[in-house]
Amino acid sequence: MTSTGATGATTIGPLTDCVALVTGATSGIGRAAARTLASYGAQVVAVGRRQDRLDELAADLGHDVCLPHAADLIDQPQAAAAVAAAVEHFGRLDIVVNAAGVMLNGPSLEARLDEWDAMVDLNVKGLMYVAKAALPHLVDAAGSSSRRVADMVNISSIAGRFANRNVAVYNATKFGVTAMSEAWRQEFSPHSVRVSVIEPGAVETELFDHQQQPVIEHYERLFAGVEKLHPDDVADLVAHIVTAPRRVALAEVVIRPTDQA
Less Cβ crowding at N or C end of the chain, within 10 Å? Predict the structure, then answer.
């Protein structure tokens, strides 16, 4: 299985013969990860809610390389259907990158319960739904792949390591992602499935734009003078994790901007 990009040139790389499913692929880290994994030779299933952006990505990468699949991952049947579509279309599933997430922070007395629910539903339950559907296929892929390994990479946050005021529920969701990742790593290492978690600091993505205006202004002050990470920086780390030798499992990686304390 080789990948053919939009230019028609065949891409052969360390992930040739691999199929990767990437959630949150309409923007930010997810979109960058989909592009990067395709450049390494993988065929990619790009999952997100915005069909137009998925179609643009597929047209850019090539429809034989990228399958766009619109899904709202807070709905368990839709999450399972995205995994099923990957296996049906490409015949296997070797890599899952769970990059979909939402951040809605602010003072707890003023926060809306529906915003807290949204973070729990997508950051924890959506990831859980994808993992539940994908893990059996990753176990199968590890047994049949020439790499003799399969990978799940979950995007958490430094908010999954350190609690901060006004971030309580987002902290809880990202602590949950980090905890699930480590537990799954232990459970599936005997099956040659590596489960890794990446905990980025500030990244230049749409994540910060979903806040109330006072919160946006707070983050602008907080990160004044800080050159944020680019999504490609995190995507490069994803690629490093999944292309590492079989013997190497990068279980937990923190990546921060150089300027961020």
Answer: C
Q: Token pair of 109, please?
A: 């007395």
> For residue 154, which of 197, 111, 96 has the smallest C-alpha distance?
197
First-to-last C-alpha distance (Å) of the chain: 44
**For helices 51-61 and 28-39, angle between their N-to-C axes, nearest 10 degrees:** 20
CB–CB of 47/25 below 8 Å? yes
Residue 159, amino acid: A
Hey, what domains does the chain have and what are their CATH numbers? 3-255 (3.40.50.720)
Q: Smallest Cα–Cα separation from 82: which of 102, 67, 94?
A: 67
Our answer to whether residue 170 is catalytic in this structure is: yes
The overall pTM is greater than 0.85: yes
Three-state SS for 3?
A: strand
153: phi then psi, degrees, rounded to nearest 5: -120, 120
pLDDT digits (tens, 9 = 90+) for 162-193: 998 999 999 999 999 999 999 999 999 999 99
Go through 12-24 and write b for each residue having 16 or more CB atoms within 10 A of its CB, e for each that does not.
ebebbbbbbbbbb
The torsion angles phi and psi of 38, rounded to 5 degrees, stand at: -65, -35
